[in-house]
Amino acid sequence: MGTVLLTGHRGKIGVATETALTAAGFTVAGFDLADGDDVRDVDGLVARGRGASAIVHLAAMPNDDGPAKDVLDTNVFGTWTMLAAADRLGVERVVVASSIHATGLFEDGRLPDYLPLDEQHPSYARSAYSTSKLMVESTCDSFTRATGIATVCLRPPLVLEQRERARMEDELASSPLDWRWRSWCDIRDVTDAVVRSLQAALDGHHVLFVASGGVLGDLSAAAIAGELGVEWRGGTSLIDTRAAQRLLQWAPRH
Fold it and tell me: What is the dihedral of CA 150, 159, 190, 111, to 10 degrees?
């Protein structure tokens, strides 16, 4: 399986991803701000990634959690730096944490053009965070075309551990959270998608939604679309994950 350079390995998803990678037989080299590492430091990434055959890039500033300049610098320039390190290391594949926010549908209450969301839905990104995730995907696309190194950008919605899901279900029972917080993905399914992104026989650049097969709360996905007055294209989830299922041989199990 080889060694994987894992950025952001001290975060919630990072800890779970390291566990999943190790269980799958990979050796993990971690790189995290909590240890004094800077994802914008290409020499530091190259030094830590010596011998790695792949990079999983989770390091990012989340959800406009700081000045716009810092969000864009960390997320976009940090991704460019990571890709520069990938090129120097000669890795075979890069897996990157993008986000449902790349669609821009979490801004100003904008409704989707249709549901379930799929990878062909246009982006309306305006905030620093949404724009950064869209730019991350674009940067990976051009990097793959230039180098031939395969890149996979995964777009999860709300990522929940089992105990967090129970709390969210309780909140939904007492308050009408809007449709954007009803889409979710169990953290175990996210980490499974990361592992399968490394194992799948693929080349080129791919942007893939990963999400639960259902929605949080008592309403069905079709009923939510009906309440919103949005075109409904069928299914049980607000997010279409068929592309990930086909390409990665992945499915939401939790």
Answer: -60
Structural domain boundaries of the chain?
Answer: 3-157+186-212+238-248
Contact between 93 and 209 under an 8 Å Cβ cutoff? The reply is no
The length of the chain in residues reads: 254
Can the peptide bond before residue 116 be classed as cis, meaning omega within 30 degrees of 0? yes
Q: Which of 84-98, 135-149, 216-230 has the lowest mean pLDDT?
A: 216-230
The CATH class, in words, for 3-157+186-212+238-248 is: alpha beta
In sequence order, the 6+-apart residues with CB closer than 8 A to the CB of 214 are: 221, 236, 237
Asked if the model's pLDDT at residue 177 lies above 90, the reply is no
Q: How far is CA 77 from the centre of its chain?
A: 17
SS3 label, residue 27: strand
**pTM score of the predicted model:** 0.96
What's the CA gap between 22 and 6, in Å, rounded?
Answer: 11
Core vs surface per residue 219-233: b (16+ CB within 10 A) or e = bebbebbeeeebebe
pLDDT digits (tens, 9 = 90+) for 92-134: 999 999 999 999 998 878 899 999 999 999 999 999 999 999 9
What amino acid is encoded at 199 in this protein?
A: Q
- For the residues 79-83, what does the mean pLDDT come to? 98
Q: E-strand spans in the chain?
A: 3-7, 27-31, 52-57, 93-97, 114-115, 150-155, 158-160, 184-186, 205-209, 231-232
